[in-house]
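Teaching assistant's notes for section 4

Start the section by putting this record on the projector. Ask students to predict, before seeing the second block, whether Glutamate-1-semialdehyde 2,1-aminomutase will look compact or extended. Collect guesses on the board.
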Amino acid sequence: LDAADRQRFAGSYAHRKSALSHLAYGVSSTPRATQNPVAIAVERGEGAHVVDVDGNRYIDYALGYGPLILGHTPPSVIAAIQDELGRGLRTASVHRGEAELAELIAACVPSAEQTSFVSTGTEAIQLALRVARAATGRVKIIKFRANYHGWADGIHVGNAIGQDGASALGQDPQAAQSVTLLDWGDAGQVEAVLDASFAAVIVEPAAINGGCFEPPAGFLERVRTATQRCGALLIFDEVITGFRLALGGAQERYGVTPDLSVLGKALGAGLPISAVSGSRAAMEILSSGRLMHRGTFNGNPLSVAAAIACLKVLQAERGEIYPRMEGFAAQLCGFLNDEAVRRGVPVRARQAGAAFQIFAANGPVETLRDTAKVDKDKTLVFTGALLRQGVMTLPRGLCYLSSAHSLADIEATEAAIAVAMETMARSTT
Ligand code: PMP
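Reveal the predicted structure now:
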């Protein structure tokens, strides 16, 4: 271990060591442990920044794995949570906020005439699949390779290029038998395979988990047409893209309206809340009460209050927030790619709206299939080098913008990228 790292991250190393004694693997979600050189123990967040237990300050592009679209301390969201707290915790009670939030979602998201709430994206995916199966009376689902839809047994397959099977130890290998895997972006495959035996096609409309790919021209439109022809439901997993690629998500950005949308992450501005939304027809099985939808924490008042406050800010400031986030992402990707080419370093960035992916690769990565060439270890070296320069990304290189990032943050990030490139240039020669 590097002596300078030991010193700089002393508190995080000490935290990790003590956490391991009772907290399984020292983290609450396995990927958090992959941060290089150590899982940073965060002390507090402030706008677009986080401060760790050693007092190191970072410009934060991890943003809690995506939810913190307004940054760590959005005043109106925090005020709404405090106000709600003044009336007690009240979970599992019917309250006014749920209907108000559903109405706000309907105003923002094209497909969202009706909405049901759960707490996490994984649960919302499970509910959406159940709605599709109950509504159609069919079982089979089409999923795309390297799209991620949460960790439940029945859909946790084909999460990376080259890994078509069940992805987790202990997963029921039978559970995902009703899933047919196809190549994301290839509408011809969908048209060839889809027939009246399928309940749904589920898709990340922009393949953010796979490496920030926007859909090829015509892909979503053709999948939309094919599902309509077969009476299968089209489900957009907008857990990342919802309220991020536009106020109305990917469906607004690309002009294709699904039957069902799965929303999460940015919806709650940082509190746990996810949703299934859809047309009146697609949601009828839920809105009639025929399909059982359960969960003690569904629609909990604190999360709902945070989400209402968040959507109000995004609605009021959409004209400034989205172009600015996207402009900053473009500026950073442009800078990173130019620097990398100039220095001959095999690191690149790809942008999709207010998200971008940094990766090291042995060759060009133009399509999702090319991500098989991504060098995961070298990517971790690069994101680790950025961390030492005060820039926090997801360990695997995925980055998000928030409304709290400033031009000064972007310029400081460019300086950090330049130094991290130098480190990479030295380590590859
Ligand atoms: N769908 C997508 C597209 C996601 O990115 C994620 C989480 N990264 C999920 C579903 C699962 O959401 P959660 O982690 O809240 O269960």
